[in-house]
């Protein structure tokens, strides 16, 4: 099911268009077709439109172009340097916006606008904002942030301003938090710090081990994450604004195509609901006890996996499902019972099992002709 209800969007769009003044370029299909025919007529060589008439001024600015979907009205720029932009009837806007919103991964209004305005003249920022406000997936992300409470400290007033602006601008929901923790482990002298990076929209957590507490090493690890998973608009940290500013500056220097701003905000421990920094250290400790290992950094990938595959009550999905649409596939474990996969080790073993399985299913269907006749024909 699409994230935006088409009927609701069209109803609200009609209300919006009706409220607009007469010089708006948003037309319903019947009026659009009439205008298109009139432009064609006026621009035809045989038409005699007085040059000082209103018709001439309007039709001089517009033309008719052929597209895969049929004829459409487009702007007729006065200079060849300017690009001709298309006007579409309001009935076609839903499909255009849905395509753009999905292709850009539920992008906000600024990214959508920059994409849309390359091609269309009459899909305005207001129409794009209306579309995004109706997207159920984007709504879940917004609700998720509205539940986060800032720290109650002497910066509370400032935090509240930030919190309010979070609600006002959807672009600020694209946010990550990076925290560096000292890991007190006498057995290991090489790795002393754990870097926790969380995407606050998807709750996806990345855990990395560091040798030193410094911005250089943290920046390297963050870039590895950002170049695969994407970077947020805003970065924050419990280690303080100075630390984040250093990281943001280094990212700008090493990788200029990524641009992030530093924020003073950070969120209350309760927000992570059993997955805060202390809980993560406890999970690592549990892993050490369970495996009798002394190398804490070897357990980091397993703790990261358990955090990202755990069901999140706010999102109603696990973080992995939010990012990839599913939890990580575990090979044969994900499709076969244990008593079958434990005996399989080569591709030939798997082929033999699949051949046997296919024959068994066919035999079963022959034994139950009535039941099998009820199955849909493939
Ligand atoms: Zn969306």
UniProtKB/TrEMBL annotation:
Q: Which domain of life, per UniProt?
A: Eukaryota
Signal peptide extent: none
**PROSITE patterns found in the cross-reference section:** INTEGRASE (PS50994)
> Where is the Integrase catalytic domain positioned along the sequence?
166-327
Can you supply a Gene Ontology BP term from the record?
DNA integration
Q: Which GO terms describe its molecular function?
A: nucleic acid binding
Q: Which InterPro entries match?
A: Integrase_cat-core, RNaseH-like_sf, RNaseH_sf
Protein name stated in the entry: KRAB-A domain-containing protein 2-like
Q: Which gene encodes it?
A: LOC114240202
């Amino acid at each position: 099911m699409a994230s935006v209800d088409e009927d609701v969007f069209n109803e609200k769009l009609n209300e919006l268009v009706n409220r607009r003044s007469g010089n708006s370029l948003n037309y319903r299909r019947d009026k659009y077709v009439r205008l298109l025919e009139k432009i064609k007529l006026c621009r035809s060589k045989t038409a005699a439109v007085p040059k000082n008439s209103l018709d001439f001024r309007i039709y001089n600015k517009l033309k008719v172009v052929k597209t895969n979907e049929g004829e459409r009205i487009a702007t007729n720029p006065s200079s060849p340097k300017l690009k001709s932009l298309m006007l579409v009837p309001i009935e076609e806007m839903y499909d255009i916006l849905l395509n753009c919103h999905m292709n850009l991964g539920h992008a906000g209004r600024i990214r959508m606008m920059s994409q849309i305005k390359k091609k269309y003249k009459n899909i305005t920022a207001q129409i794009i904002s209306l579309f995004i406000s109706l997207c159920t997936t984007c709504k879940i992300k917004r609700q998720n942030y509205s539940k986060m409470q800032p720290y109650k400290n002497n910066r509370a007033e400032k935090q509240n301003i930030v919190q309010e602006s979070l609600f006002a601008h959807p672009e600020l929901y694209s946010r990550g938090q990076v925290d560096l923790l000292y890991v007190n482990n006498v057995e290991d002298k090489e790795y002393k710090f754990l870097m926790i990076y969380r995407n606050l929209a998807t709750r996806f957590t990345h855990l990395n081990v560091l040798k030193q507490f410094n911005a250089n090493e943290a920046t390297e690890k963050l870039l590895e994450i950002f170049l695969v998973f994407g970077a947020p608009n805003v970065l924050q940290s419990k280690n303080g604004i100075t630390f984040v500013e250093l990281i943001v500056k280094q990212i700008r220097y090493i990788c200029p195509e990524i641009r992030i701003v530093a924020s003073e905000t950070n969120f209350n421990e309760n927000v992570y609901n059993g997955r805060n920094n202390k809980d993560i250290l406890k999970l690592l400790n549990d892993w050490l006890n369970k495996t009798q290992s002394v190398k804490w950094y070897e357990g980091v990938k397993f703790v990261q996996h358990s955090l990202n595959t755990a069901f999140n009550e706010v999102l109603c999905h696990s973080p992995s499902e939010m990012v990839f649409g599913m939890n990580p596939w575990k090979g044969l474990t994900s499709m076969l019972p244990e008593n079958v996969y434990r005996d399989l080790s080569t591709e030939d073993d798997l082929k033999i099992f699949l051949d046997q399985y296919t024959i068994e299913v066919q035999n079963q269907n022959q034994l139950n002709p009535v039941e099998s006749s009820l199955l849909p024909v493939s």
